[in-house]
Design a protein that fits this description.
The chain is an alpha+beta fold. Among the domains are: 169 residues, no CATH class; 160 residues, no CATH class. It is built from 16 helices and twelve strands. Helix 8 packs antiparallel against helix 9 and helix 10 packs antiparallel against helix 13.
Length: 499
């Protein structure tokens, strides 16, 4: 291990509770040497929130964020976990190309991990090179910041660092490391790792640590482990409902990619849907559509069932059948919570302050029409609100349809339903504009920006896209191109993990 480097005061003040509390749950490690690390993107707003004062021109800081150097107070570790990947169980995965540098407390005392992705091989690499390339690093940076701006719980990027080396991925690509921030990197797969080994003492220790860190109000519950499962399931249900409401497709919802904190993690081959189609898949490795847009709620439930299996001995050590019954009941609550969160969110998208069960059919009929007419998902909901402002807005909405008559009867029924709202139409339109984004990371825009960065080292398009999607609801002059769907000659669009 290289001697820790002292960096400027207030740069990092690590407090590494995971490493301190859970010895044996990780391997102490250091990242590979980066020939020429350089910070190419830095998230000043996130750094300020975390109370960090960092000099992005400092070569030592670039080395730290690439994994080559160890900052004072940092205890870099590769975390152990297992996971079901596309339904198949791997008892040992772990951080094969990642390192947890440590934890910091923000200005409000909230704890966050600082974690590197692409910092080189670890004992969990399984023969891989442990590296990342620039394109996927920038994709995760953009997607995480877009999701944050949309109000969706997510990991975020602190920095993107190029390493000065070329990595072989469908040709040679610039190497890069993503420095990301999360409430933690504890996953369903972390619990599976110890359950698969029958290490119940370790599992209990992990559960108590996780509850204390993420769900502290549950520690005094009579059956805190059952309450813990219920709380995790509740967060996942609400998270996935939010994904569905903006047309986000994660792409690789394996159990090792489901964070116990309820944050979106490990973006990989993700993308936002353009034309509405519930069977949309972008990921090159999801050949059967397991994680297609419409399958995400069920995939979340399946992952939670695997999580539940790990908790059985903790919930009722002497009566596993009883524990399974209680967990099964809690798992059914997940889908009920999801459906209510989905209905509430979709209701707000069409201007309903408090959607009820009677509105489900109205929303489902709308989605069927959008699918049949191949209408852009994001544009439709934004223009639907605009249509309340007059004939010009209505014309803009109808222009999305090859057959405008296909939506006519639905619009009439919608206006009838809006009459039940106690708010004026102007207020409804304003409320809709606050939940229906105008700007998302459009796939063709993302690909163009990544290509310019990878091929020419030009990050202007990436920075511009980040600025636009960081304010997704505010219409601004000169940004019309960012609100348009891909041109007809773009596609079929495929995303890749980058591993």
């Amino acid at each position: 291990m290289v001697e820790p480097i002292r960096i400027p005061t207030r740069a990092f003040s690590f407090d590494n509770s995971f490493a301190r509390s859970l010895e044996g749950f990780y391997v102490t490690w250091q990242g590979a040497e980066a020939p020429q690390p350089r910070i190419v993107l830095f998230n000043d707003a996130l750094a300020d929130k975390l109370g960090l004062s960092l000099d992005t021109q400092d070569v030592v800081l670039a080395e730290i964020l690439a994994g080559s150097r160890v900052a004072e107070g940092s205890e870099p570790i590769a975390m152990a976990y297992a996971g079901h990947q596309f339904g198949g169980f791997s008892p040992q995965l772990g951080d094969g190309r990642a390192l947890l540098l440590g934890e910091v407390l923000d200005k409000d005392g909230n704890r966050f991990d600082i974690h590197l992705k692409g910092s080189g091989p670890t004992p969990f690499s399984r023969g891989g090179d442990g590296k990342a390339v620039l394109g996927p690093v920038l994709r995760e940076y953009i997607m995480g910041e877009a999701m944050h701006a949309l109000g969706i719980p997510t990991t975020r990027a602190l920095a993107a660092v190029t390493t000065g080396e070329q990595i072989r991925r469908q040709g040679l690509k610039p190497g890069a490391v993503l420095a990301r921030v999360a409430s933690s990197h504890i996953r369903v797969g972390t619990f599976q790792f110890f359950a698969a080994r029958g290490a119940w003492d370790s599992l209990t220790k992990l559960a108590d640590y996780t509850i204390t860190r993420h769900y502290p109000d549950l520690m005094d519950k009579e059956n805190r482990y059952l309450a813990f499962f219920q709380a995790v399931a509740d967060r996942q249900a609400r998270l996935i409902a939010q994904w569905m409401q903006v047309g986000f497709i994660h792409g690789v919802m394996n159990t090792d990619n489901m964070a116990i904190s309820g944050e979106t993690i490990d973006y990989g081959p993700c993308a936002f849907m353009d034309q509405y189609d519930p069977q949309t898949v972008f990921s090159s490795i999801d050949r059967q559509g397991r994680y297609a847009y419409a399958n995400q709620p069920q995939a979340g439930q399946w992952n939670l069932a695997r999580f539940a299996e790990t908790l059985v001995p903790l919930i009722a050590p002497d009566d596993h059948n009883r524990a399974a019954e209680m967990l099964t009941d809690a798992l059914s609550d997940y889908m009920a919570t999801y459906k209510q969160a989905w209905l509430s969110g979709m209701g707000r998208k069409i201007g309903l302050f408090a959607a009820s069960g009677r509105d489900t059919a109205l929303i489902q009929i709308l989605l069927g029409t959008l699918q049949g007419e191949k209408v852009d998902f994001t544009q439709f909901f934004r223009r639907l609100g605009n249509s309340l402002s007059g004939e010009e807005g209505k014309a803009g909405l109808l222009a999305l349809f090859e057959d405008p008559e296909s939506i006519a009867s639905w619009l009439a029924e919608w206006h009838t339903r809006l009459a039940d709202e106690t708010r004026p139409l102007e207020t409804i339109a304003r409320d809709m504009a606050q939940v229906n984004p105008l700007y998302i990371p459009r796939n063709h825009m993302v690909e163009q920006a990544l290509q310019e960065a990878e091929d020419f080292g030009d990050f202007r398009a990436v920075r511009r896209l980040l600025e636009v999607v960081s304010h997704p609801y505010d219409e601004r002059e000169g940004l019309e191109a960012f609100a348009r769907p891909a041109p007809s000659d773009f596609g079929p669009f495929v995303t890749y993990c980058g591993t």
